[in-house]
Amino acid sequence: MSLEQFFTDIKDEIEKDLNRKSAIQEIEHQFDSTIIPYKSTINEWINCSPNQLISSIIEKGANGQTVYEIYHSFTTKLAGLECKQSQKERVHNKFVEDSIYVLITNRYFLAIANGFINDPIDIPMVTTPQDVGVIMTPTEIAEILRLDKIDYQAYLLALLRLVDTIVEYTTTTVINESVASTGSKSSNYSIAIINSKIVSKLQNGFQLLDLKNDVLRKRYDSLKYNSQRLNKIVYDLSLRNLITTKGEVN
Amino acid sequence: MSDFASTIFIPARDNLRIKQDDREGVIRLCRDITSYSKKGIFSLHRTISEDELIKELAGYFNVLSDRLAKIQKNYPENMHLRGTISGAVEELIEFFTFAFYKYNFQLLRYDVFLKMIQILINGDDVEPIVQYLIKSESLPEAIEPHIDFIDLADYLMGIFDCTGEIMRMCISQSSQSTGDFELKATLNNYRFLQKLYDQYVLLTQHYSGISINRGVFDDSANSRGNISFTKKLQVFESSLKKIESTLLDILVSDKEII
């Protein structure tokens, strides 16, 4: 075989792969742009105190059908691209994980908003016939996104991202309450104990897994630090008798 | 708590264990492919009779046939293991390209390589593959390859390793030198590698950030893939220099004899 011909073929293949990469990046970029409004809403909620959440949730909460349509639309576009499967796989996984993250984070904030209407606060961990659960289950996800098979890896990764969001929400709320303190004790401080219990239960759940040295394990390692931070916040608030509204997660 | 765990984490654990078992299965298959490819290369380096070599190669091909068929079957659900499979595939390419080069003094065509792998995956008779590599007899017609886990990029990386084997062959040729034949063979090998090296260098001048990840080309400087490619090119260059030294030694020795 002619070496020149072989290397000409190599150059052709490189050009094709670079073009494919551009095409796939374009779709990824479009997906990110489409998801941005949902992430902006989540950022708004992070800055909204628990007892003020309910109106914004009703107005801006993500609709399962809409998230499904976005997910389905982009996975269909992705399937239509003439790319190598290994190129598509990474992006497809990202679509799944991001869609799940949007859904479970919306669920979390919905459950918190519902819970803080009442005193004492009582929130179920998973959905019961009486009340919506704080953690959307893989079965619920599969139903909304119409997945043939539950992608547990993507679900668990999204769950770990939710924990980051929960911690951020806790610190932001406590800071906002402290800065705005008027002397009267606020039920919003209870978010710390609620979130601490949620994260603690999630941590117990993750310990049931046989995590290998992969991306899931690396992301899980940050969970313990998040858990410690929440415990410290709860301790500080309790010490100052700032948690006045009882909260339970069951 | 038990409700929560049984709803989410027990099924997740079961699912992840299945994936982990699949992954370990693929890794074992890849190790076998790497192992038997290396055995094949060792056989090619030995001075043994043609019949004996044919017998050994056929044995290796039969094992490779079984392992490759299993990977082909499992690949659709284990695409994330493409990187692991690439390592085994490169070793396989090294084996096939070296075998073909040793008896034909040419680069094995990529499309022909794929046909041979398809024969192995189909579980067909391996004899035509051996005959093709060693005696240039034709392969069966109507073999249409459909292999998802091998790409042209893997082939480019595998050829790097083949150059190392050619260098080793040159060194062992020279140490048994008994006359013009070996010198000529070493000289021809040197010229082939020189042309090949020039082509690789031209490629890097055109795509300075060339890299390969999971069988896909990219052009991004200082990426892990680019560093890996550059190192392989440096190893290739040092192989060339070793052969140059060998040639100089032979030439000087010959003059001393005269």
Structure write-up:
Chain B: Pfam families: Translin. Chain B: It is found in: Cytoplasm; Nucleus. The complex is a heterodimer of chains A (250) and B (258). Chain A is mainly alpha-helical and 250 residues long. Chain A has one domain (3-249): Up-down Bundle (Methane Monooxygenase Hydroxylase, Chain G, domain 1), CATH 1.20.58. Chain A contains eight helices and two strands. Chain A has helices at 3-46, 53-60, 64-80, 85-115, 138-145, 152-179, 190-206, 215-239, and strands at residues 121-123, 247-249. Chain A has a two-stranded parallel sheet with strand order 1-2. In chain A, helix 3 packs antiparallel against helix 4 (85-115) and helix 6 (152-179) packs parallel to helix 8 (215-239). Chain A is elongated, with a radius of gyration of 22 Å. Chain B is mainly α and 258 residues long. Chain B has two domains: 1-146, Translin, domain 1 (Methane Monooxygenase Hydroxylase, Chain G, domain 1); 151-257, Up-down Bundle (Methane Monooxygenase Hydroxylase, Chain G, domain 1), CATH 1.20.58. Chain B is built from eight helices and two strands, in the order H-H-H-H-H-H-H-E-E-H. Chain B has helices spanning 2-45, 50-74, 82-104, 110-122, 127-135, 152-175, 180-206, 224-257, and strands spanning 210-213, 216-219. Chain B has a two-stranded antiparallel sheet. In chain B, strand 1 and strand 2 (216-219) form a beta hairpin. In chain B, helix 7 runs antiparallel to helix 8 (224-257). Chain B is globular. The model of chain B has no long low-confidence stretch (mean pLDDT 86). The chains are: A mainly alpha (250), B mainly alpha (258). At the A-B interface, helix 1, helix 4, helix 6 and helix 7 of A face helix 1, helix 6, helix 7 and strand 2 of B.
